Amino acid sequence: MKLVNENNLESLKGFNYVRMFLGGYKGNIQFGTYMELFRSGIIDPKPTYQRPYTYDDELGTYTGNTWQKNLISNFLRGDVIPPLSLRQVNDKPIDFQDYNQQYIELYIQELLDGGHRTRTFFNFYQGLLTVPKGFTLEINGKSYDLGEKSWVEFPPVVKDHLSKTLVFDIDVYTTLTDTLAGEKFRTLNNLHVMTDPQWRNSYRKQISYSCRQLGSFDSSEFEIFTKRENGVNKLLYLSSKVSHTGRVTDEIVSVLSIRIKENFLSNIEPDKYPSLVPSKTKIDDVYENDLHEKKGESGSYHINGKIMKRVKLILSVMNRIIVNNSNDKRFKKINTLWTKSSLVKLGLMLNDWIEKYGHFSIELMDEELFFNKLTSYLLTTVKELSMVENCRYEVVNGELKIVHKKTMKSERSKYRFQGVWKTGININDYEWLKGVIEIDMKKNLSNWGIVILDSQRRFTTKQRQQVEDRDGCVCNHDGCDVTENLQVDHIKPWSKGGKTHIDNGQLLCSDHNLEKTDTMDDEQLVDLSTDDLQGLIIKGKIELGKVMEIQEIKKQRGIE
Ligand SMILES: [Zn+2]
User: What confidence score (pLDDT) does residue 504 get?
Assistant: First the structure.
């Protein structure tokens, strides 16, 4: 980080220099120039130590609130507003054309103060917000009625005047480390109410970064956390309780990662009834301890670490189950099914099943079959299939048994599967639901869309040798005597549950291996080399588009 000193003040002429202070400088900048800086991305509104902004200016229905309208009209009338805070993050200035079409040199900056004021002005500047009704300005003796207009609707003469005369006071910090920037952000925001995720995020811990990456509406790759209903401040697939402004979405990620890390479910005493969601104190502790974690990918909650990779896998399966079944006619109001508590429960169940059936079996599960089965339970009205409250459960000999009862004065209530699914958040709710499902899974797992897949995907060189020793070095297809370019083939396809064992292996020439393609699904195609896939296109067995799809899957999984 380069310190600003008297010698390089030249490069700061975009900011009208006022004076330096320890670790930065104060200045002011023209309204229009500052807005253009923001528009151009030279000012980054979302540094990683911040969860700054919660207004819905990306939605069509956004009109702003009273605080925002007052801020704008006061500023336009010439009231002094407190300085905006920026952090200088690079030491090489870049060229920038300012509001007056003049080229100036500037350093890249971050919004340090959360950006509520900057974003408010910017929304006004680009036409999303208007000044209040009845707003007038007197300029050079002439009065202008500007009521309910945005900046883009202001007369040119007014814009020109205001652009030249209005300035923002700016504090630019030039020497802050990431940690100090997080601290500064907290100090600057103490005047406002900071939410818990904002507060925790400002510490730049691995867990906060990972949870934001995976679970927040502004950066997640999963549609369940990002896709909003048209013009409504509500996620499309999740219940309204999981609205994005509450930042509940990345809390789901944090709950899952914390519970998986501590192996929560296997450490609960038989007479306790804890919630699956950790207390606020507990979550704060985890974030606090994360500060002392090893840096780099070995850290517990690093985005590329073991825990977060598992969480990512779980989220991708949940995303598929929810999104790909969202048009199912049996649920007109399907989104009320997907609440914070149902997602936490489903996520933890998937984690258990990954342990039980293996990574591939869950990753490649058939989401439609799974949903179909789940739906039959959600819609059931069979009275026997009800949970008795405040009892711990266990599956014994294929039946769900009560293994502990809480002492109660009144009679115990019974709850239907759907109710427990949507709202239950304690260990007993989880045990009961999972027990009901697993008893049925035990009868027929594939009805739930799960096929147990060998965790070993491919034959090893040693296994190949064993097959060659057994069968000889020749194609195993009847009447074929090709001895070159032989491949070890799963007799029963791997994706149908065939084992990667020599008993299920045979040598085939590439022609006879490809012949099986007529019945090949994606998983078998993934097994083929690029050359073989190209061979299939030439033979007209598959379309180019399909091959590109397969190559994409291979790329994602790091094959070839
Ligand atoms: Zn052959």
Answer: 95
398: left (phi over 0), alpha (psi -120 to 50) or beta: left
**What separation in Å is there between the alpha carbon of 338 and the centre of ligand 1?**
51
Cα(402) to centroid(ligand 1), Å: 59
- Cα-based angle 143, 148, 151 (whole degrees, multiple of 5): 75
- Report how far ligand 1's centroid is from the alpha carbon of 482 (Å): 6
Distance CA 129, CA 151 (A): 8
Tokens of 175: 């020497």
Q: How far is the CA of 506 from the centre of ligand 1 (A)?
A: 11
Closest C-alpha among 373, 357, 449 to residue 417: 373
Retrieve residue 385's tokens.
């299939």
- Output the pTM of the full model: 0.75
Q: How far is CA 463 from CA 466, 497, 504, 512, in A?
A: 5, 18, 11, 20
Helix 306-324 to helix 367-378 angle, to the nearest 10 degrees?
70
User: What is the pLDDT confidence band of residue 411, given thresholds at 50, 70 and 90?
Assistant: confident
Could you give the count of Cα atoms lying within 13 Å of 439 in the half-sphere of its Cβ? 16
Whole-number Å distance, alpha carbon 517 to ligand 1 midpoint, is 14
HEC string for 11-24: HHCCCEEEEEECCE
Q: How far is the CA of 184 from the centre of ligand 1 (A)?
A: 70
The DSSP annotation for 141-173 comes to TEEEE-TT--GGGS-HHHHHHHHHH-EEEEEEE
Distance 473 CA to ligand 1 centre (A): 11
Q: How many angstroms separate the alpha carbon of residue 100 from the centre of ligand 1? A: 75
Lowest mean pLDDT across 85-94, 292-301, 431-440: 292-301
User: What separation in Å is there between the alpha carbon of 480 and the centre of ligand 1?
Assistant: 5
* Lowest-pLDDT range of 119-123, 331-335, 341-345, 542-546: 331-335
Condensed to tens digits (0 to 9), the pLDDT of residues 349-358 reads 999 999 999 9
Q: Which of 210, 226, 203 is nearest to 308 (CA)?
A: 210
Give Cβ neighbours of residue 392 (< 8 Å, ≥ 6 apart): 270, 271, 273, 402, 403, 404, 405, 427, 428, 431
Distance 510 CA to ligand 1 centre (A): 7
